[in-house]
Every structure is written in structure tokens, then in C-alpha cells.
Amino acid sequence: MIRTAWLVAKKDLLIERRSRVLLWQVVPFGAIALLLSGLALGPTHAGHSSAGPGLFYLVMLFVALLMINRSYVIESTPGTRASVQTLGLDPAGVFLGKSLALCVELWLSGLVLLAGTVLVLHTALHGALLALPSVLVTLAAMAAAGTLYGALTAGGEGAATLLPVLTLPAFAPLLVAGERSFSAALTHSGLWEWWLILAVALVAYVGVGILLYGVLEES
Amino acid sequence: MPSTETSELSPVAPPKSTSRSRWRSMGVLVVLAAAIIVLLSQGILHSLNYFETVDQALHQRALLGTRVFRIEGVVKPGTITRTSSGASFVLTGPKDHEVFVDAHGSPPQLFQSDIPVVVVGHFTSPTSLDFDGSQILVKHTATYIAAHPHRVKAPNRTTR
Amino acid sequence: MIKQLSQRLLGPVTLLLLVLTFWLGLWVTPPDRIQGNLVRMLYVHPAVAWVALYVSFGTATIASVLYLWKRTRSGTLDRVAHCAMEVSVVFIVLTLITGSIWGRPTWGVWWAWDARLTSTAILGVLAIGYLALRRANDDPVLRARRSAVFAIVSAINVPIIHFSVQWWKTLHQGATVFTSNRQLLVHGSMAWTLLLSFLGFTLLFFWLLRARYRLEVLREETQRATLDLALEMRQREGAR
Questions:
Q1: Contact yes or no for C114 and B50 at CB 8 A
Q2: Least C-beta-crowded within 10 Å: which of A44, A46, B80, C103?
Q3: What is the pTM of this model?
Q4: Looking at this predicted complex, what is its ipTM?
């Protein structure tokens, strides 16, 4: 399972490195979305540090949706899924591999956008650094949930529009817990509670993915 | 060379025994159950509470400052005063702690003495126990008692 | 014989129970000490919510689990899951609407961001997502499998909704019927009317499910017949 996961993750990350979609399309999209959120709030509210966590996660949600969609678009070339099935790869390994690749991509985008939050939305740098562990766990949980939901919609009619409908409700608890943990980091209160909640969410999404991904990949 | 190519193209055996995957599934389920039990046993889900009770608010008084939050308590009988902008009253908690509330806007239809309410607002200053409310929400209980259940009916079926 | 009789009686009995519930609820039962006549929503909202969360979503989830289990896998179960989820959407929407109608005069607002209300709304979105997922896949086997997985994962939300009023402090009141100490917190005739409403709306669900299931079978038959006809016509064109 681990070997398969590593192979699949390497393959996805290699494709991403060559295509540079993350660098030239997704991250700029996130940056623009963050800037527009600040403009929508107006200078008085956007400059208030309490707006930062919520807006950061909202933008990360959109970035995650783009990346999940992308993660399955690269599988949609004719014969790719069939060849994966013919190779007899362990579905749990495939799930973990795709989640890992997506997680790395989300972490990279997250770091850039976190810096953007500090710069544009005036979020305290010390608080943002303190929130970093919870941001990484939240994005990892998003990657696991997104991989499962991406597999549900892959290849279907209107997959790109169906994906948000299915995924956003699953992301809602992550958005709430992520935002609260970020806010807790800014006020230095109740941090470990949120880390624990997010860690449990991560375990839950990975566990459900390992159990059910095989059912989706059955031919 | 051709023989190597042929062997590479030959179908790969399916993943090994299903008992292994069954054990793995069991393991995952155990981890999932353990994770959920940890979450519940730690009682840390209180962070998603809709409101703070009067006692909790006073306990965290310094932390709350003048931040907007929702406070819950029972309206102390005989303390309601209708003001030009809304109503003022005293809110009590389970340990008889009290907070004076001055709320703006018209209170809901069921607002009355001795009823649990949730008030949205903030303390007027970092040390004050006076609460400036912007909205009153009535929190009704799950108990339903008939109004005047033993009222006697007159022969003409009207109530006395 | 018994099966036929129960099928025939399902509709009339449901109608009778609902009429009885509304009659008792609107004219016979007394007003509440605090809520007054608002309490009459008690005979609609909890029963509708019960059907939405537990009966219909539960039926869809159980049918999905049985579909994924290889020993019991069948198209019938997939159809049952689909139809139950459709009925569930209707009941979840009704739950939210009746809750809002009750909430406005009681709480003072149509909507509150508390755990019970928010998680119920999320369940509604999930149920709609399930139906959207079914429409996105033409292959019946793929569609059945994907929607079954989605239904099972979505069902995690049901216990969260149920326990939300115990785990968190919510504006929504605690359990009225399924209390932790098994004590019904409703008085006299109000309690009987409440229980009657639960029975009536549960039967309404089964009646709707049966009707929707029959409609689905007819739709599939028509689709098959249309396809056969189209193939036959093409074959005739080819023979010419």
C-alpha cells in the first residue's frame, strides 16, 4: 500500500511540476481571490486582523476545488484509469498517493496565501506562524476528503460543477475548525483543542477514504 | 528481448488475499472509533456552542473584554423595564450570577419574566458587568405544558 | 393476500391518521402554557424531522449499504435508495420551513447559526448532492456504486444532528421525544397527538416511497421499450 501510494504521489507531482498549472494558474487565482476579498470587505474591515483567518480558508477552499478537479482531469486521458486497474494497484494505496500529492500541492499554495494574508489583510505574523501546524493539518484533511469526492465525480457529466456541490458540505467542518484554530492562534487561547479536532478529522477522512476508495475503483 | 516484453505485458496477479484487506479495514474502523471517542471524551467540542451561559461569561470575563458574543440566562422576574429602544432586565445564571442587560430592538413575542433567553451583544467596558444587547432570542425548552389544564368547563362549554 | 391488503390500505390509513392528527392538533389539544397556540407546530415539525433524518435518510443509507455488500447487491436496493433520498429531500426542506415558521415568533428570528439548524441544512445539501450525482452518471452500475458510497459517507451527519443538542449548547431546544432519560416532556392529549403525528408522517413516507418506486420502475420500463423500438427501427432501415 505504501509503495503504491508513493508511486502514485510521485506520478501526480511530476505531472504537476511539468505542467506548472499550480504555479501559473492556481496560486495566482488564489492571490487574486484574496485581494478581491479584501476589496469586498473594504479598507476598514480588511485591515482588521480578525478577518484574515476566515478569508484565508475561504480562498483555500476554492483553490482546493481547482486542485481536486485537476487531480482527476490528469487521469481522464483515454486509457489511464483502465491501465491503473490492469496494473492491479492497491486502491487504498492509490487513494493515499493521490491524497499525498494533493496535500503537497495544497500546502505549497497555502504557504503562499498565508504570506498574502499577513501582507494584505494585516494578520499578525506571529499568530500566522502559530497557526501554521493547524493550517497544514486542515489542508491535509481537505486533500483526503477531496480525493474521495473527486473520485465520486470523476468522468461524470458536469464533473467540474458537481464537485463543489458534493465537496463543500464535507469541507464545512474543516472550514469552521480551521478558521477557529487560526483565530485561536491570533488570540493565543485554546490552541491544542483545535489541533486535536483537526487531527481527528484528518484521521476520519483518511480512514473513510481507505475503506471506500476501492469500491469506487472496482470494475 | 521479445520474451522479456511478453512477460511485461502479461497480466499482473490481482492484489493478494482478501483477509489482509479485511484486517486492514478492521484496523481502520478501530482507529476511526478511537479517534471519535478521544474527541468526545475530551469534551472539547464546547467550542461550537451557540452561546455562553451567564456563569461561563463571568468566568471568562477578562478574556471576553468588549467582544461581541451571545450570552444565555433566565430573565429575573420583576426586572423587565420597557425602554424607548427596547428593554432592560437582569439575566441570571444557574449559580445565581447576574448580568444587567440593556437590549435594543423589539423583543420577540414570547419574551417575558422567568424565561431563558440568548442575548447578542457585548459588555459595555472591559471590566463592567453591564451588557449592551443588540438582539434578544427566546430559548424555549423541550417541555410542553397545557395552559390551565384543570380549568373547569361551564355547562355551555365555555371556560371559567 | 396480506401484502396486497396492506398495500391497498396504506394510502387510506395514512390519510386518516394525518386528518386525525390535524383535527386533534388544531381543535382538540390545549394551547401551551408559554407558547400558546404556537405549540400546534409541535404536531408537524418534529414528526417531519423524524421522517427526514431517520426514516427516509436511514432507508436510503441502509439500502446503500446492502447494495455495496456483494451478497445482497441488486438493482432494487439501488432504486429504493434513490427513491428514499428523493423523499428525504422533500422532508428535509419541510423540516427547515416548518422550523423557521416556528422559530420566527418563538426565538424572534427565522434562522440561527446553531449546530442543529446548520447541520440539518448541510444534510439537505448532501441529499440534493446525491440526486445531482445520480444524474451525472449514465452507466447504471457506476451510478449505483458512486451514489451508495456518497449516501453512506453523508449519513455520518445524521448522528451529528441527533446529538448536536446534547454535545453543544444550541438555541434549538433539546430532545422532546428521544430524551436521554426516556421521559416524554409533553403533557396529556398533546403527547398522544404528537405520537399520532409521528405514526401518520412515517406512513406517509412509506406511501410516497412506494408510489415513487413504482414510478421509477415504469420509467425504466419505458426507457427500455423506447430503446428497443429505436434499435428495431434502425435494423429495419438497415434491411432496406
A1: yes
A2: A44
A3: 0.84
A4: 0.82
